Structure formats: structure tokens, C-alpha cells
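stage 2 :: seqdesign
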């Protein structure tokens, strides 16, 4: 399991924790900041427009990151009725977290690109390895959250096609269905989520690192 690999290497464990804190904090902060800027004071009142990691870490989501290699932060509560354009506000607020993770990955991938272009020989330096963890974990968070499965962030695009009542019903069954597929994947030894996430992450890596070849 993923956690066994981390425990076996204290250095990898530290890198993972740092990457985890950065990824989840930025992701949830951007949800809260976007909702606040679009006119909803709810995240601000709940202390979520903050870069304090303690405001954003979700115990269950963190456990899943250790066990399964993907997870989530504490959901940001917002009231879309406060947005000037409700559906647009929901979609922008929901996707802002994943977009922020991709931007963080792009910034922290700069040493990779410089190393490729100028052959600096940075591969074994501590910051290069740490930055690699940050890039990969941020892209995993982005990839997982853009899946169009309620109640994940990516599902909010469905607001363009269904009404609020239908969306509420989809979100009620979405999480149990998500866990069911996850446990079936583990039971059948065919991890559907990891397969999909790996494909998405490889494409995102191709974009943020400007790979010279296709990720396929």
C-alpha cells in the first residue's frame, strides 16, 4: 500500500506531508477565495479564506491520500444565492481549486524544465525531489477533483444541464457510488480510479512540464 512505501522512507514521508499541506491548502483556499470574491461572505465567516492548513485539512480525505494515493480537503461551504450569476458562480468556485493545483504544479515544475534545457544535473538534489512530490500530488488532487462524479468539483458542470433539484439527488447518491466503485476496485484487484487518474495526471504532466513526447 502507498502508506507502507512512505513509512519505509522518512524522507519520502516528509516530502509527501509538505506536498499534501501545500496542495490541499491552496486547493481549498482558492475555493473559498473565489466564492468570497464572487459575493458570498460565507467562506470568510467560516475562516476558510485563509492559507492556514488547519482550516482546510479533512481527516478522511487525508487518510485516503495515504491509503489510496488520492483524497480531498475539508469541503468549502458557500451559498450560491449570493452570487450575481448563480450557476456561473458555482462552476467557477468549484473548478478554482483544481485550476489552482495545476498552476502550483506548473510553478514547481520550473526546475524540471530548466534541468532538461540546461542540463544542470539537479536530479538528486533535495529540492528537486521535493518539488517533484509537490507537482505530482497537486496534479493528483486536480485530476481527482475534476472527475464529473457528484459531489466532486468536476460534477458542478452538470448545473449547465440539470436543475438544482436533480443535482441535489445526484449528489446524494454520488458519494456512496464513489465509495462502492472504489471498494470494488480494491476487491477485484483492478483499481479503476488509479487507472483513470494516472491517465489524466500523465496528460497534465505533459502540459505543465512541456514534455517533448506525447504522454500516451
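stage 2 :: out
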Amino acid at each position: 500500500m502507498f502508506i507502507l512505501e512512505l513509512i519505509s522512507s522518512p524522507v519520502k514521508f516528509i516530502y509527501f506531508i509538505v506536498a499534501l499541506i501545500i496542495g490541499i491548502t491552496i486547493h481549498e483556499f482558492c475555493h473559498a477565495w473565489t466564492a468570497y470574491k464572487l459575493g458570498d461572505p460565507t467562506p470568510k465567516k467560516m475562516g476558510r479564506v485563509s492559507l492556514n492548513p488547519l482550516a482546510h485539512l479533512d481527516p478522511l480525505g487525508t487518510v485516503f491520500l495515504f491509503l489510496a494515493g488520492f483524497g480531498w480537503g475539508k469541503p468549502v461551504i458557500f451559498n450560491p444565492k449570493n452570487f450575481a450569476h448563480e450557476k456561473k458562480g458555482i462552476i467557477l468556485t468549484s473548478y478554482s481549486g483544481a485550476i489552482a493545483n495545476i498552476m502550483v504544479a506548473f510553478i514547481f515544475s520550473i526546475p524540471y524544465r530548466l534541468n532538461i534545457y540546461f542540463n544542470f544535473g539537479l536530479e538528486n538534489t533535495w529540492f528537486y525531489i521535493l518539488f517533484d512530490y509537490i507537482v505530482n500530488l497537486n496534479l493528483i488532487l486536480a485530476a481527482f477533483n475534476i472527475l464529473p462524479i457528484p459531489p466532486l468539483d468536476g460534477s458542478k458542470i452538470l448545473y449547465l444541464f440539470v436543475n438544482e433539484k436533480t443535482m441535489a439527488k445526484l449528489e446524494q447518491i454520488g458519494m456512496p457510488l464513489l465509495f462502492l466503485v472504489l471498494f470494488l476496485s480494491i476487491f477485484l484487484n483492478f483499481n479503476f480510479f488509479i487507472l483513470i487518474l494516472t491517465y489524466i495526471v500523465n496528460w497534465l504532466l505533459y502540459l505543465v512540464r512541456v514534455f517533448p513526447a506525447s504522454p500516451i
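stage 3 :: structure notes
- DSSP finds nine helices and no strands in the chain.
- The CA atoms of residues 109 and 132 lie 7 Å apart.
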